[in-house]
Design a protein that fits this description.
By secondary structure, the chain is an alpha+beta fold. It contains 8 helices and 22 strands. Strand 12 and strand 13 form a beta hairpin. The longest helix is centred in the first third of the chain and has 19 residues. It starts with a strand and ends with a strand.
Length: about 450
Amino acid sequence: MAIDGLIILDANGRPIIQSGYTSFPPAYPLLHIDALNNELAKAPSSGIIDPVVYVSSGGGGDMPDCSACCHIQVREMRMLASISGDLDPLVAFAFLQAFHDILQDYFGTVSTVTLKGNFDTVYQLIEEILDSSGHPLTTSPSILRDIVLPPSLLSTLLASLPSSSSAGRSAGPTSLNNTGGAFASPIPWRKVGVRHNSNEILFDVTEDMRAIVGRNGTTLASNVIGTIECSSRLSGMPDLLVSFSNPNVMVECAFHPCVRLQRWKREQTLSFIPPDGKFVLEEYQYAPPQKAVVNNLPIPVTLKPNITIGELGGSFMVTFTSRMMKSMENVKIEWYLGEDAIGAQCTLSGAGSGVGSTGGAEGSWTFDSRKKTLRWEIPTMHSSGSRILRGSWTSKAQVPRPAHAFQVRFELPSHSFSSLKIDQVRLSSELYKMYKGVRMQSCGSIEWRW
């Protein structure tokens, strides 16, 4: 089975980009658009709906008996992929994420204005990454850049000149072969003849903790997913060998096609010829030394909510504490106050301080009247510090029904939950010296129930 098609909707739910649904009648993509818009219309003001929406087609004519719409939100837009039969929705979501990353690599900012201004480039990309049968093809940005030229002022000017554009088209295949284009290299992910004035490779190791904490403060589930991203600017055909000081902390690894798997299985080192530009080298799950707690890792923060619900509103006191010995950044705590919430009033203070404030070192708070969400933001949280948010909220409902969970997000620069370290990066097959850089960072997303 394959993906039936791809549609991009604007903020008003109207399609602005649509791939060819060659195997289905014209009404089929319209059913998916209507199904998604109907779910958004019935959703609460927060706009949160199921990521997979069932589409009833009746099975008449060439319509499939059962189909679904998988969608993601990108700024004000919605990207949706239609699937039918027994296709795993995860395939559609992986494709949507890859397509979004490609658009971001081409245009920088993915918005309605950007897509409308580059219709020709977007449709060329769709033709290259999704064939007529719905099977994903080329999704590597470095390869696509040799097949579909990124938009630029020069290409726009050349396209406006008929003589120049026709000459460019006639000379295209010859120049592509002469300069070592996308199909001239024996390695699919890297073209020949790459040259850079300065040779460097940068590694970004990002670890993301996802956790759920119960009402009594015990961790119900937690895990850490790591990603090693590379930015390669190396000339020629470099052959790299990356070794780790503690590779055993990585399990369930997924690698870029350039990695030699047998070398990893034998020595737990990464041997590869990198693509030119940015790419994801590896994704992994953190496995702590104690195998029994692989899905129950310690949480680096503590949240103590004290909630009192009364008539037409309620009051609360929320204490947030960091267990880390280093500073946290961009701490965000969100709480949905219910569909009938009207407003909120809050004060902020540090632990042990009775003085309240509306902002400062303790952060700032806002109430989103559209999403009915109270948001508490702390730009910098010092090591082992505590912050307190006190306040109350009002509601039109006689018995308010706020969410029984807080959403906590934070960032830890220069930190790794797994203590993973890149030991060495060796270059062979080339004689020049390269610059090597490694940056570690971690983030977390926790659902804290009360």
